[in-house]
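Troubleshooting: if your tokenizer reports a length mismatch, compare against these two reference records.
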Amino acid sequence: MSVRLWQAQRGHGREIKQVRAKISKASRLAQNRHAVIFCCDANYLPFAALAISTLLDSVSEPDFDICIVSLDALELPEQLAVSKVRMCQIDVDTRFDSLPTSHRFSVAAYLRIVLAEAFERDYDRILYMDCDIMVVGERFASVFDLDIGSAPVGAVMDVFKEKRPNQQTHDQRAINMSGSYFNSGVLLIDCQRFLKQQIADKCIYAATQYAKEKIYFDQTLLNLVLQGKWAQLHPAWNWQWEVVRPQFSVYADPQVVHFLSGQNPWSDQRGTIPIKYRE
């Protein structure tokens, strides 16, 4: 396994020292010890703005920071002009240069794995969320109180794995990985534990080992490195719309709805998404 190889290299003094991610520019200083963070590039910035708008509708006076994090300089969207959103540009040096991307996933997808590094001095816990989400629950503000034990990350089981626990996902099969598997679209990160276990370095190293395999980018890498080391959150914190039957939401009380694989309110030509999400 790549993580064991990484550990072996460290033991023989062959570890490549990585330059830690850092904040190169920020629109304001941190105001709280917790933060909700969206990572994006210019293409996904409008969706991040929409997600933040739904968050602010659910939590009118948040006791946590709300951040948009990017590799390039971005301007705060006009609809968020009166909000207290913190815009942060991150410098990762050359760490992402060899990581795989696609037409849908840019290198910005990997920013979530270095958030603990970049915000080590600012935040104790970070809730990372993809841009294709909506905050819909009244209990959202309690997310930072969730118990994740001694794990560095809390996440929700990927619905494919939830329905087929004994079947490997496509990327698990590609790299001969088994076991549980989470969706990386919503991650509750304990910054100090994440740093202590060197999760980012292990993910980047694993990417070099499986460069020729069909992996799901950051999600595959995080699942590989965090095998047996992540805490499972209730599905309400990452209600994966594409593969969840709508009627089940009555019982789950979703706090965050995650629209997967292009089936979302802003491009719902067939009208399959409930009108309450499309308004």
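Reference record two:
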Amino acid sequence: MYLTEISGISHSIPSAVLGALMRVPPLSPASAKLYTLNEENADMRRVAALISGDPALSALVLRLVNSPLFGVRHSVKGILQAVALLGLDRIRSLATTAAMKMLVNPAFASPALTRCWRHSIATALGTKEVAMRTNFESDSAYTAGLLHDIGCFAMLSCWPKEYGQLLATCPAADLLQSEVEALGVSHADAGAFLLQHWGLPPELVEVSREHHGPLSERKEKLVELVSQGCRLADAIGFSLTAEAPEDDATEDALDYLGAEREGFFFRVSDGINQIECLLL
């Protein structure tokens, strides 16, 4: 039995489940190392060298940098140039997007894995929009939204048939409890453990663990933003489960969009399509 200590609360993960999670391939080591840097200690050449050390990651990052989705006006031909133009936070968000897509091999992508990927991108884009409305740093918000359900990718890696079936049949409201009953861990705890194990920042660990929690327990603003981004993704049809949630939170998300509902759906759908086309 393994106990994680996140936000002062102990959560148990059975040792057999822990062993399975420990065998999950990590995100690209280069992308994970970017989280050990900050604007004060991040020399541009050091950041560029980290990314350039992974040729596959470098190629995907350059594709993203040069796409209309990320708004760079000039052609970017090298990683160092990209870092100089965009800065650490934006480069980190692009590298994380590329690293996440590397987990989704089109040749082996199941309907459940494709849903997880699209829900994650939709949540990232939704969280970024919410952040821009609240003056929160939008690239950090995007990255947190992107990684909030990393536990789902891990569980599909460990138990592809069983977890895929669970996502296909379980009502959204019952998912966390059903995960624990069927597999011994929720995707929230699995993701929190892995992000902590991979050395990512505590605020991202907390987002994974608490974005489904009661409102009163989500103390950090970043968790609130991601939770709203997740509900927005659900509300416009990019839900994690095959059965879309129908609850007050989803209705509230639609109300939050107001007259922007159709525009938001278009922006997210177009963003997912662009990223998938670029990273295939």
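Descriptive notes for reference record two:
- The beta strands are 2-6, 9-13.
- The first strand starts at residue 2 and ends at 6.
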